[in-house]
Amino acid sequence: MTLTNIETELWLRRFHPAPDASTRLVCFPHAGGSASFYFPVSKTLSPDVDVLAVQYPGRQDRRNEPAVESIGELADLIAPMLRPLTDRPVAFFGHSMGAVIAFEVAQRLERDGVTPFLLFASGRRAPSAVRSESVHRESDDTLIAELQRLSGTDARMLGDEEVLRMILPSLRSDYKAIETYRCTPGARVSCPIDVLIGDSDPHASLDEAGAWSEHTTGPCDVEVFDGGHFYLNDHAVAVTDRVARRISALRAP
Question: What is the pTM assigned to this prediction?
Fold first, then answer.
């Protein structure tokens, strides 16, 4: 499959070019999130790390495209975009739904002989830790209430009816994708997994987060922060520092 620059730029956003960086970090947004969520991470890590953020269909400048309602299909679409960018060591960072997509993309790259050297799984229970959830079937009001409960969306957006009309379709599709996701039994990657989680996250208990160790043949480390599902908004400096330290420690010379 030959990809055009336009196709790649549609899916992958590079906010701060770092052509001399020795490593890359690919960031995967949460449900309802967009690539711009990782603009601060890119700004902080550049130029030492070449940071790219995935832009899913159905949001921001891709809002006229249909959102993808399957984690597996999203991973199938994203993996080919990343293969040409594995000419240097690559790490993944995914928050919430993004952690699961990162895990699935990593499996696909490994099958092609390319292994990310590190996977950061943030704010998400292990792929095998299944809960029965069906928010995607609920009313718009219930979806908005869920956003408010998780405290990950700017309160000004929640009060703007026009903005809500724009984000709710992609949010509902994302929730359908993650709530209907079931990983392949025994699915693993070979890279280390760093799990980052808030101690009061309603979507992931500490035991469920620790179960990520079952999904790698390498080491798995869990760091717990004060806070809920979007703990990283309150601990941005600490999270980014950890990412930088771990990348520096594990990247190839």
Answer: 0.91
